[in-house]
Fold this protein.
Amino acid sequence: MVTPVSKLDQLPRIGPSLSQKLATLGILTVEDLIYYFPRAWEDLTQLTPISHLIPDGQKRTIRVKLSGINTFRSPYKKMMLTQAIATDPSGTLPVIWFNQPYLRTTLKTGNEYLLTGKVEKRSGKLTLVSPEIERASEVPVHSLRIVPIYPESGALSSKIFRRLCANLAPIIRQVEDYLPESIRKEYNLVSLPEALLHLHFPASLEFLQSAKDRLSFDELLLTQLSVQSVKQFLQSTKAEPIPQEIEFIKEILEKLPYKLTVGQKKALWEIVQDLSDTKPTNRLLEGDVGSGKTIVITISMLVAAKNKFQSALMAPTEVLAYQHYQSIQPLVEQFGFSCRLHTQSFQLGPETADITIGTHALIQESITFNNLNLVIVDEQHRFGVEQREKLKKKGIVPHFISLTATPIPRSLALTLFGDLDLSVISEKPIGRKPIITRALTPQEHGSAYKLIQQEINAGRQAFVITPLILESDRLNTKSAEKEFKNIQTLFPHARVGLLHGRLTTEKKQLVMSAFKNKLLDILVATTVIEVGVDIPNATVMLIEGAERFGLAQLHQLRGRVGRSMYQSYCFVVPTEEEEEIMKRLQIFAQNTDGFKLAEMDLQMRGPGSIFGKMQSGFFRYRLADWTDARAIKQAQEAALKILAESPNLDKYPSLKKKVTIENVTVHSE
C-alpha cells in the first residue's frame, strides 16, 4: 500500500498523547488507521422536526437554535449538568448534557446546531439527552449521513475515530489496488480506494454494501492464496512412500489394553493409505476431546519406524510435548524402537531417534535427521510452505499430519484447510461416561467446592482454571496466583499445585508430573492445560471467569476430565451474574457436542473463540462471513486463477506484498 503520509503524527489533530493512545490498539501508522474498520453503521441521513420526536430509543438528528444555556451542579449525584432549550420551526425541546461544563462557553445562543441523540421522558417532559453537537454551518461528520461506529477503547471514542478518518480521504484515494483488474471485473468488485472510502464514509447503504463485498472478498482471497499455494506446492513434490505393514499393525492392536473405535480404525486406515503413496500426505486428523487421536498417530509413527523412517511429533508447548512423550514412549520402546524428547529445555538427540517428540524447536537449522519421513503437528494447522521449505532444504519432503481436538465447522474447514484431506474421529473411547456440566452463579461456588472435596476424599483429583496469571486492575476476573492461595485456604488438607505459562520449563514439568502421579489433589492453572493434558484420575473441572472463554474453548477445557471410567464433572462460573452470560453458559452446560458448540462460536464470536490465540495471526477477518460457503468458494476459484497465471505471485508484486503483510505465506522458489 502506498501512502504519501506514513506516520500518524503527520496527520492533523494527532499529537503525542493521542498517538500513544492509538498505539495501545496497534494503530501505529496511517495504514493501520485506514484499516481500523468500523464495527457497525447507523443511518442518520434524515433530519427530524422536534414535533415528530418520540421516546422510541432511536437516535434522531434535529437542526435547532439554542437558548437558555445554563450549567449547574446536581444536588443529588454532585455531577455537572448543562441545560438548554432547542428550537426549530415545529417546536421547542429541553436538552441536557452530563459532566460537560465547557459547553456553557462553547455553545452560543442564536447559533444553529445539529444535535444527534435519543429522546427520553424526564419529569413528564420529552428531553433530548446528551446529544452529539455539530455546527450546522460545517460539513457534518457525526450526523446527516451513514455514521460509522468504531471499536472503542477507553478515551478513544467513535467520535474521535470519525474526526481522524475524515482527514484520510485524500490519502485513501491514492491507495494502490493490489487486486488484479481482471479479477476485480470478473467478480464485479469496486476498486480498493473506493471500498475503503465508502467503508469509513458511505455515500449510501448501497455503496456501503459494495465496500463490504470488496473487502470481505479480499480477506477470503488472502487465505485462499495461502491454502492453494500449499496445495500446489505439494502436488509438485514427491515423498518416499511408507509401506502399510498391515500385519505389524495387527500385532500392535493385539497388544493394546483396549479396542480401537470404528472412527479410530477408519482414520488409521486413511492415514496408512496416504503414507504408502509418493504424493506427500497432507491430512488433518480431527477428533473431539478424548476421542483417542494419540494412539492413531503413534501407530502411524511405529509403521514408519518399521520401515526405517524417522518421525517427528511437534506440539505447541513444552507441557504438551512432555505429556505426549510420557504417553507415547512406553509403547514405542515395547516394540524395540527409540523415542526422544527435544524442546528448548530437553535436547536428547533427534538425529538417530526413530521417533522424536518436541516443540517447533525441531525444525531449527541446527537440528538434523538421518531419514525423517513423517511430521505430525499437534494443534498448529498452518504448517505451510515456509516450514516445509525449511525441511526441504535439509533434503526432506516428509508426509504431514496435523492433529486437532477442536471440532471445526465445515465452512471454517473449507476456508482454512482446503489444502488438507480430513479424517474425523467422532466417537469417544468405549466406557467413557458423559461429563455432568453445570453453569453456576458466583454465589453458588459452594456446590462446586463441596463436590471437589467429595472427589478428593474418594482419591480423585480436580482442576481449577482461571483466565489470568496475575491480578489485573483493568480486568475484573480471577487470576491463577490469587486463586491458588484461595484454594489453599478453602482446602487446608489438600495438596494444591499451581501451573501457568510464566513458570520455568523445569517447574512446569515438576508440577505436571506431581499431578499425574497423584502427588497433588488440586491443580490451579491457566489455559496452558487446554489441549493434550491427559490425567485419567482427574474428575472435576472448575472454570472461573468462564465468560472470557469461547464455547469451543470451554469444551476443550472440559475435555481434561472424563478420561476414565469414573463419573466426571465440569462447573463454569462467570465473574459476575449477568443474564446474557448465564444464558450462554447454560447453552454450554446443556451441550456436549463439540461441533455444535463450535458452530455457535463461529456465528457469535468468529474463529478466534474456537482456536484461542494459537493462530491469531491467521484470523484477521473483520468483514468476511465464515459461514458463507458461496463466498469462500468464489475466493478459492479466484485464488486458483491468480496462481495459474503467476504461481509465485511475481506478476502481482503488490498482492504478494499484501499477502506477506497479512502473515500468509505464499510459495516462492
Remarks:
- Confidence is low (pLDDT under 50) at residues 613-618, 663-669.
- The chain has four domains: 1-44+156-165, 46-144, 176-309+371-431+628-669, 436-591.
